[in-house]
Amino acid sequence: MPSTSTPTQNKRQTIDTLIHARWIIPVVPSQRVYENCSLAIDDGVISAILPTAEARHRFSAREEHQLDQQILIPGLINTHNHAAMSLLRGFADDQPLMTWLEKHIWPAEQQWVSPEFVGDGTRLAMAEMLRSGTTTFSDQYFFPEAAAAAAREAGMRAQIAFPIIDFPNAWSRNGDDAIEKGLTLRDDYRSHSRIGLAFAPHAPYTVGDETLKKIAIYADELQMPVQMHLHETAGEVEKALKDTGLRPTQRLHNLGLLSPQMLCVHMTALDDSDIALVQKTGAHVSHCPRSNLKLASGFTPVAKLLDAGINVALGTDGAASNNGLDMLLETNTAALLAKAVSGNADALPAHQALAMATIHGARALGIDDVTGSIEVGKAADLCAIDLSELEQQPLHDPLSQLIYTANGHHVRNVWVAGKLLLRDRRLMTLNEEELRQRVGVWRDRIAGRTT
Ligand SMILES: CSC[C@H]1O[C@@H](n2cnc3c(O)ncnc32)[C@H](O)[C@@H]1O
Ligand SMILES: [Zn+2]
């Protein structure tokens, strides 16, 4: 592979970090597997990608990592999560979406959700995400200021999608109140390099037309991303048709919400008119296969959407419906499910599944100029996965191993903006013992043993 760095004289250039990896998949501009290559990182940014022998000759680094049996890929991007709901993992299983929400989750949230709950729950989620290779997540939850502070401290990259619902809840009195609070939070993070804000109208059945129109106007004016649960189940579409005479996707389009800033989360029960609208407007789709499977919500026609030229990214949804946040597992599930749903074994091959988990995610969140691929000039958001375990042998094809065999437990090292946040599976910015203790307190409170 050609060197992509600038030429230097005989003297070695001193940089922050050098990573030497057995395999690298940059994703963009190439999906190829590079062998025995290195990354030079300075100031949190990738400054060169070159053969290891050349890297050793040209650079000296303050920190050097030798990843002999590991594959280096762009950090994984989780485009839809309710991070703090990790504290409700296993709280209510084996229910369909609306029963799960109305009978179990919403009553529990009314009782327990607070800034403290969101801080602890988000830290638990980030510990799991980092330990399974995620560097960026989009979060939609109450008290977004607590999630933003937790992400800032832990060093992760995050899109904080502040929740907008037209009825009183733990965080806001109504839609207008939520918009006002969310925009104030946006001001607080205006110059932050890793934290961005987005509007998150919750769903077509919890937000009315007037609020949605306001969001469309603000999003356009401020060039802010929007994300919304949409077409999660066939029941949602049927009820919308009965109540409004419109399919939810058409209703959002009429209100001016479908655009390249819009991320439609779920998108099951689609007909050709829905797909045509998403394609025409340049909106993105966040596919959350494991949550959809567990809640029996329906199937996203991923192969059809990709064939139509729509950007499809991946998300886990919250750990209360998934019940984990492992993006490698999510990618594997997406690849298998796309084959089953389309009836084609060649649907969503490994390289396309990896693109969905990385660069498609960055595009969906509007940050593909910063992250989502290993390219000179992009942030050093990286994930290194061990391919040496016995269950991964023989190693005919590292990409195949990554998508069809590995899972989050094989992730060993993770960097965000050049900072090592997971070192040999140890968390560098989150205190695991303290976290276990806090999570135990919440389990006892929720189980009714303490208050
Ligand atoms: C307004 S904060 C987020 C809100 O969404 C709820 N939620 C979690 N998972 C789902 C889902 O799959 N569909 C719809 N709503 C969901 C969560 O419990 C919060 O109340
Ligand atoms: Zn969700």
Automatic annotation (TrEMBL):
Cofactor(s) in the UniProt record: Zn(2+)
Binding positions (Zn(2+)): H80, H82, H229, D317
Pfam families per record: Amidohydro_1 (PF01979)
Coiled-coil ranges (or none): none
Keywords: Hydrolase, Metal-binding, Zinc
Span of domain Amidohydrolase-related: 71-420
Catalytic activity: S-methyl-5'-thioadenosine + H2O + H(+) = S-methyl-5'-thioinosine + NH4(+); S-adenosyl-L-homocysteine + H2O + H(+) = S-inosyl-L-homocysteine + NH4(+)
Domain of life of the source: Bacteria
Cofactor binding: number and manner: Binds 1 zinc ion per subunit.
GO MF terms held by the record: hydrolase activity
Binding positions (substrate): E109, H202, E232, D317
EC number(s) stated in the UniProt entry for this protein: 3.5.4.28, 3.5.4.31
InterPro entries linked: Amidohydro-rel, Deaminase_MtaD/DadD, Metal-dep_hydrolase_composite, Metal_Hydrolase, MTA/SAH_deaminase
Job of this protein: Catalyzes the deamination of 5-methylthioadenosine and S-adenosyl-L-homocysteine into 5-methylthioinosine and S-inosyl-L-homocysteine, respectively. Is also able to deaminate adenosine.
Family annotation (PANTHER family): AMIDOHYDROLASE-RELATED DOMAIN-CONTAINING PROTEIN (PTHR43794:SF11), AMINOHYDROLASE SSNA-RELATED (PTHR43794)
Family statement: Belongs to the metallo-dependent hydrolases superfamily. ATZ/TRZ family. Belongs to the metallo-dependent hydrolases superfamily. MTA/SAH deaminase family.
Protein name as it appears in the record: 5-methylthioadenosine/S-adenosylhomocysteine deaminase
